[in-house]
Amino acid sequence: AQSVAQPEDQVNVAEGNPLTVKCTYSVSGNPYLFWYVQYPNRGLQFLLKYITGDNLVKGSYGFEAEFNKSQTSFHLKKPSALVSDSALYFCAVRPPPDKIIFGKGTRLHILP
Amino acid sequence: NAGVTQTPKFQVLKTGQSMTLQCAQDMNHEYMSWYRQDPGMGLRLIHYSVGAGITDQGEVPNGYNVSRSTTEDFPLRLLSAAPSQTSVYFCASSGTGTGELNSPLHFGNGTRLTVT
Known about the structure:
Chain A is built from no helices and twelve strands. Chain A is an all-beta fold. In chain A, the strands form three sheets. In chain A, strands 2, 5, 6, 10, 11 and 12 form a six-stranded mixed beta sheet that branches. In chain A, strands 3-9-8-7 form a four-stranded antiparallel beta sheet, with no helix packed on it. In chain A, strand 7 and strand 8 form a beta hairpin. Chain A is globular. Chain B is mainly beta. Chain B is built from no helices and eleven strands. In chain B, the strands form two sheets. In chain B, strands 2, 4, 5, 6, 9, 10 and 11 form a seven-stranded mixed beta sheet that branches. In chain B, strand 4 and strand 5 form a beta hairpin. Chain B is globular. Classes of the chains: A mainly beta, B mainly beta. Chains A and B meet through strand 5, strand 6, strand 10 and strand 11 of A and strand 4, strand 5 and strand 9 of B.
């Protein structure tokens, strides 16, 4: 079965420190990979996606993600966390042309 | 540009009642989908469609029906509501044409459903 795993329910990071939110996947073929963010009482917003090529992808709000094919991982990173980054983050995969499936989400708390 | 429009925003049902959650998009997207979001469970795919007349089941399809008679609309029907269907429901769409498979999902604002 195809699946997406976000092993951490919650990640706490001090403001100004680097952050990493982990994602691994198990799907057939070469999927497209995405990160979305959900702020409190809001819908989901697209952050970034992986397109074949450079393994480090840059997205919105200073976020980036590192793709590792051998480890089937797509970890979200940011060099310096802001309190405003506190939100729920979802990793998603799309094995073309199939359905898009999401991980369970990771709640990110940035501590002032 | 309206994007993905979901109605209603809030709904309270009694057990056994039926209802339809509406979803419409104006971006000519072939792919449309319904997710439910529950605490600790993330986003779970209910049903999806890759074009008019084509639907398929996702991870949690039981208790829900869908149809796709037009490209624009993808309604979700609850046949006989149960308390376990209390959740926030999101409709989302994306392109599927050449060069579009890696395009991100566009989400509606969600419907908060409570079944008592």
